[in-house]
From TrEMBL:
This is ABC transporter ATP-binding protein. PROSITE patterns: ABC_TRANSPORTER_1, ABC_TRANSPORTER_2. It comes from the Bacteria. Keywords: ATP-binding, Cell membrane, Membrane, Nucleotide-binding, Transport. PANTHER family: CONSERVED COMPONENT OF ABC TRANSPORTER FOR NATURAL AMINO ACIDS (PTHR45772:SF9), CONSERVED COMPONENT OF ABC TRANSPORTER FOR NATURAL AMINO ACIDS-RELATED (PTHR45772). Pfam families: ABC_tran, BCA_ABC_TP_C. Residues 10-252 form the ABC transporter domain. GO terms for molecular function: ATP binding.
Length: 259
């Protein structure tokens, strides 16, 4: 199935976010198709992260509607959206630094079912250990040999991969990744790019990313934002050749191949 024929998993209709008189989002429309990589790009302050907050329920909308997997989730809190199949990483790495890689993933897997997630009276044995899920994610991340290492001892690139893994451990339908390659060295970029591209076999990926080489290589659809509004949307080749996009944001970056 081509990306154009895939069903729509997530739809935003006229989503707005106001902070007093400041308009962070001025009516954003977005359609994300299942099992695709859909990237959202734009200059700093364009509203990309604010849009992520609205889509994932981290903050409340000022107007508009959000539909996920056939459900109106516009006014649902973030923890309910997680249970519907949304998972998210953030710009700033957010891990449990003193816990091992395995324990970070276990907690993420347990968090989907909050009733049994926080039980200090019983050790995480049996089904509560989520061993099968954790093992599968460790293998996918290439972090099996580091499973018993505290997350604070990982390299920056490994920590960023682990954070993606924590989103995966929730077994989501859609994964929202906010600048997952931020601060990465060249050696880590290819591994992260391959990881994200492979996710769409089983998940839908919504990506904020400033590295244009990665965006152009792995995206099925790209939405370009400026000043809280969508100014263009299309396939990578269409965005690369869009004069309005180049003038507003990309300049010579995508024609010269530099991020």
């Amino acid at each position: 199935m081509t990306s154009a024929a895939a069903p729509i998993l997530l739809e935003a209709r006229g989503v707005q976010k106001h902070y007093g008189k400041f308009v962070a989002l001025g009516g954003v429309d977005l359609q994300v198709r299942a099992n695709t990589v859909h990237s959202v790009i734009g200059p700093n302050g364009a509203g990309k992260t604010t849009l992520f907050h609205m889509l994932t329920g981290n903050k409340t909308v000022s107007g508009g509607k959000i539909v996920f997997d056939g459900h109106d989730v516009t006014h649902e809190p973030d923890h309910r959206r997680v249970r519907r199949g949304m998972a998210r990483s953030f710009q700033v790495t957010s891990l449990f630094p003193t816990l091992t890689v395995r324990e970070n993933l276990r907690l993420a897997a347990q968090g989907v079912a909050p009733a049994g997630a926080h039980d200090p009276w019983h050790p995480p044995f049996g089904r509560r250990a989520r061993a099968e899920v954790v093992h599968g994610v460790l293998k996918r991340l290439g972090l099996e040999r580091l499973s018993d290492t505290p997350s604070s001892n990982l390299s920056h690139g490994q920590q960023r991969r682990l954070e993606v893994g924590m989103a995966l451990a929730a077994r989501p339908k859609a994964i929202f990744l906010d600048e997952p390659t931020s601060g990465m060295g060249i050696d880590d970029l290819d591994e992260m790019k391959d990881l994200i591209q492979g996710l769409k076999e089983e998940h839908t990926v919504v990506l904020i990313e400033h590295n244009m080489n990665i965006v152009m290589n792995i995206s099925d659809t790209i939405t370009v934002m400026q000043q809280g509004r969508v100014i263009a949307e299309g396939k990578p080749d269409e965005i690369r050749s869009n004069a309005l996009v180049r003038a507003a944001y990309l300049g010579n970056m995508i024609t010269g191949g530099k991020a």
